[in-house]
From TrEMBL:
SMART domains: TPR. It comes from the Eukaryota. Residues 1-11 have a biased composition (Basic and acidic residues). Residues 62-149, 177-268, 296-388 form the PPIase FKBP-type domain. It is an enzyme of class 5 (isomerase). This is peptidylprolyl isomerase. PROSITE patterns: FKBP_PPIASE. It catalyses: [protein]-peptidylproline (omega=180) = [protein]-peptidylproline (omega=0). Coiled coil: none annotated.
Length: 602
């Protein structure tokens, strides 16, 4: 058919046979080549590619497509043509507005593609036929897909239908926490405009909602720059009550369907940094690349710190001031700032909102420019100027790995001595990762590396005990004992954890093994004493439990026995009464009747 009017199939039959068309896959068959014909699956529809389309996307059912087509019988007799009418046709796929088979063919096409479809009668005009199409006829449609509008059922119940007029940029869509900037015009079915934003748009947080229920729901499905038309049913608009006039909107009658032209101008992602809604990061400017500072990085930042009322209490790197440099995850700044900065890219600008739990808590704190009252919510405007990430094990040679492990181990020791067990445990984990079992070391290094690894596991087990993570302590000590079967520290710490976990039998086994190695070890003997006391208490509880169970069972047996005796006595009594009654009846029956005749005995 061609883009120009009147172009026919014959015009493309001798077109150069180009490479395979990318993207079009039919039941794993190779893409069609220009001039090639193939059946679409087992549908009975045949498709012949006349001209390739653009890109790789194809429309789906419910999308609105704009096409030109020419319909003919197999002998070439024309029965319909948008070319002759000089007007393309727009239709919704899946409704069979021309014939059902045509819709099934169009969903395989790309924008600008030309194709010839041969349809069997059941997917054409069937047994009824039409004016110029005999019953049970095979028909052909030569089609050009001019364009289409993507149609999405946002609410999955037909309540919010979105038609994509202009595609957006990238792939990101706003989330529930994000701040969006949108532009819209809202009209009733009769065209009356009831609401319209200023030309620069209007901003709101998605979770807070705006205008009506449909707007935030639809916005979350859009990309930056995307323009759509929404058809909103009353349940997602203003329902049965409608809406009274206000500064932002004209009156909306009850049960009104709304037609909204909506554009997502931009959005600022908001991230729940700590996962408990106590530290939020709103990205004002995206950073460079994909790398973030992460834990252990040396970061350089500038910031302005304010209270909720706007009072500035601290500035760094602003107005020729020196920026702040620190190492993340070292408690060198408040936890909220530390955690948020570790998620930032170079060049990123963000606004942080920090609740007191991750700020200065309930303590009044003096800062450079003002005093921070107790339980204050803090707001930081931060820019990541630069960061240097800590080297990963695969970026180091063996000597660097060993040195890094020793350094982290010593840092962990200092933290442990100051009672910071959680942070100390992280240091031991990191130290062990530098000399992990998957790393390859030389024979002369292996002994030192194994000793380092074992020390880190034992020290982390000690942290786990302090933090009441008994399962973690048992696991770490078991790893040590897989290497050193009679390591006294591992046996001792695992026994401690097993006692706390109420596994006294396994704890006893570990203590006995430890005493085999060092019979005079004071700590092991003390824990053995504790274990014996616990075992004695356990035995007493068990004895009391079994005694109570036996007493209860004895009482139950006694009650059952008494009950059986009573039931037996009652049965005997009943049997005695029955015998007596029978005897009485027999005796009564032995008296002669009034007529003086005796009754025969039975």
């Amino acid at each position: 058919m061609g883009v120009e009017k009147g172009t026919r199939e014959s015009d493309t039959e001798h077109e150069e046979d180009l490479d395979e068309e990318p993207g079009e896959v039919i039941e794993s068959a190779p893409p069609l080549k220009v001039g090639e014909e193939r059946e679409l699956g087992n549908s009975g529809i045949k498709k012949k590619l006349l001209k390739r389309g653009l890109g790789w996307e194809t429309p789906e059912f419910n999308d609105e497509v704009t096409v030109h087509y020419v319909g003919t019988l197999l002998d070439g007799t024309k029965f319909d043509s948008t070319i002759d009418r000089d007007s393309s046709v727009t239709m919704k796929l899946g409704q069979g507005e021309v014939v059902a088979g045509l819709d099934h063919g169009i969903i395989t096409m790309k924008k600008g593609e030309h194709a010839l479809f041969t349809l069997p009668p059941e997917l054409g005009f069937g047994v009824a036929g039409r004016d110029t199409v005999p019953a049970n006829s095979f028909v052909r449609f030569e089609v050009e897909l001019v364009s289409w509008i993507k149609v999405v059922d946002v609410s999955k119940d037909g309540g919010i239908i979105k038609k994509i007029v202009e595609k957006g940029e990238k792939h990101e869509r706003p989330g529930d926490l994000d701040e969006v900037l949108v532009k819209y015009q809202v009209a009733l079915s009769d065209g009356t405009i009831v609401a319209k934003t200023p030309e620069e748009g209007i901003g709101f947080y998605v979770k807070d909602g705006h205008l009506c229920a449909a707007l935030p729901k639809a916005t979350m499905t859009m990309k930056r720059g995307e323009k759509v038309k929404l058809v909103v049913q009353p349940q997602y608009a203003f329902g049965q009550e409608g809406k009274d006039a206000s500064d932002a909107i004209h009156p909306v009658p009850p049960n009104s369907t709304l037609h909204i032209d909506l554009e997502l101008i931009s959005f600022k992602p908001v991230i729940d940094v700590t996962g408990d809604a106590k530290v939020f990061k709103k990205i004002m400017k995206e950073g460079e690349g994909s790398l973030v500072a992460n834990e252990g990085a040396t970061v350089t930042i500038s910031y302005t710190a304010r209270l909720e009322d706007g009072a500035v209490f601290e500035r760094k790197g602003i107005d020729d001031g020196q920026p702040l440099q620190f190492i993340t995850d070292e408690e060198q700044v408040i936890a909220g700032l530390d955690r948020a900065v570790a998620t930032m890219k170079k060049g990123e600008r963000a606004i942080l909102t920090v609740k007191p739990e991750y700020g200065f808590g309930n303590i009044e704190t003096k800062r450079d420019l003002a005093i921070v009252p107790p339980s204050s919510i803090l707001v930081y405007e931060v820019e990541m100027l630069d960061f240097i990430k800590e080297k990963k094990p695969w970026e180091m040679n063996n000597q660097e790995k060993i040195k890094a492990a020793e350094t982290k181990k010593e840092e962990g020791n200092l933290l442990f001595k100051s009672g910071k067990y959680l942070r100390a445990g992280k240091k031991y984990d990191k130290a062990a990762s530098y000399v992990g079992e998957e790393e390859v070391f030389g024979d002369d290094e292996q002994k030192l590396v194994t000793a380092l690894r074992v020390t880190c596991w034992l020290n982390k087990a000690a942290c786990s005990l302090k933090l009441n993570d008994f399962k973690g302590a048992i696991k770490l000590c078991s790893k040590v004992l897989d290497i050193e079967f009679y390591n006294i520290k591992a046996l001792y710490r695992r026994a401690q954890a097993l006692i706390e976990a109420a596994d006294l039998v396994s704890a006893d086994m570990d203590i006995k093994k430890a005493l085999e190695v060092d019979p005079h070890n004071r700590e092991v003997k003390l824990i053995q004493k504790t274990l014996k006391q616990l075992q004695a208490e356990s035995n007493k509880r068990d004895a009391k439990l079994y005694s109570n169970m036996f007493e209860h069972m004895t009482k139950q047996t006694s009650v059952v026995t008494k009950k059986l005796k009573v039931e037996k006595a009652e049965d005997d009594m009943k049997n005695g009464e029955a015998v007596a009654m029978e005897m009485e009846n027999v005796a009564d029956s032995s008296y002669p009747p009034d007529n003086g005749k005796a009754v025969d005995s039975c």
